[in-house]
Amino acid sequence: MTKTAELADVVLPGTASWCEVDGGTVTNSERRVQRMRKALDPPGQARDDHWIISELARRLGHDWGYPTLEQAWDELRSLSPMHAGMSYERLEELGGIQWPCRSEDHPGSLFLHGRLWEDEPAQGPKAPFSITTWVPPVDELTDEFPIRLTTGRRLDSYNTGVQSNLYVSPLRRGETLDLHPEDASKLDVEPGEVVRISSRRGSVDAPVRLDTGLRPGLAFMTFHFPEQVAVNLLTIDATDPKSGTAEFKATAVRVEKLNGADREAAGVAGREADY
Fold first, then answer.
1. How far apart (Å, rounded) are the C-alpha atoms in residues 115 and 199?
2. For tag attachment on the chain, is the N or C end more exposed, with fewer CB atoms within 10 Å?
3. How many contiguous H segments (helices) and E segments (strands) does the chain have?
4. φ and ψ of 17, to 5 deg
């Protein structure tokens, strides 16, 4: 039951497609489309997503029948030229294919924009280039907020933990504020000490962890443990004017020591031992 699911009137139990669905495809970040295999039976009344969608349609008066995942994939291929050559048979035979793959005899594309290196690109003109003027982060560093905070991921966890917090890992250590030792020394804080991190929008408390991989002046936190530390209270909702990407990676913050009363009030006293 995620924060998003808590907002819903009805939550339908879908199967875990990566291990409980017999068939389907998955596309990884190098554009490689691969077949999926069922490893486990789903628990309770969980149903495959495509069955749920088809059943919803039927009950709303639009009976689509119950197409197989291969039939759904073939419909996608008929509408997406980039996937046209990726039949289930070819995906099985080749162990996956990288899109664009425009025909049944195409091997897939090792480079996404490889056509741009051709003398006469077959699929349209060469890509235009435009000059983009560099603009500094909206959240400026000042004497009041002198440290740049960036947020990201650790290898062990995935986003807010919906897919990773139900198993135990020796790598998991909870949320921390990662600082370069030089910054920690200037702030007079020790590893494991709970500090207050404040931006122009809010404050959170977290224990300090030293990381020599950071440069001085740069701090790091994750968004893996929102129930523990709501890191996104600090981030800014400004967006890039061209891509629309949110500027979560460039927050200006200050770091402050907590006295005993503040630590008790924040409910974090004694947590240092975990870090």
1. 45
2. N
3. 6, 9
4. -60, -25
**What is the amino acid identity at position 118?**
E
What is the DSSP code (8-state) at residue 256?
A: E
Tokens of 152: 């990201």
Residue from 139, 137, 142, 176 nearest 156 by CA: 176
What contacts 38, CB < 8 A, 6 or more positions away?
19, 20, 21, 22, 23
Q: Return d(Cα 73, Cα 84) in angstroms, integer.
A: 10
Question: How does pLDDT run across 231-265, given as a tens digit for each residue?
Answer: 999 999 888 887 888 888 899 999 999 976 666 66
Report the C-alpha gap between 174 and 172 in whole angstroms. Answer: 6
Cis peptide before 100 (omega within 30 of 0): yes
Q: What is the distance in angstroms between the CA of the first residue and the CA of the last residue of the chain?
A: 28
Asked if 175 and 229 touch (Cβ cutoff 8 Å), the reply is yes
The pLDDT > 70 percentage for the chain reads 91
pLDDT digits (tens, 9 = 90+) for 117-176: 766 656 666 667 778 888 889 999 999 999 999 999 888 887 777 777 777 888 778 899
CA distances, 22 to each of 13, 37, 53, 102 (Å) = 17, 6, 17, 26
Largest CA distance in the chain: 71
Distance CA 233, CA 149 (A): 12
What structural domains does the chain harbor? 9-117 (3.40.50.740), 147-274 (2.40.40.20)
Measured distance CA(25)–CA(96) in Å, rounded: 9
Q: List the structure tokens of 129.
A: 């280039």
248 contacts: CB under 8 Å, gap ≥ 6: 151, 232, 235, 236
Q: Which two tokens stand for residue 206?
A: 């977290």
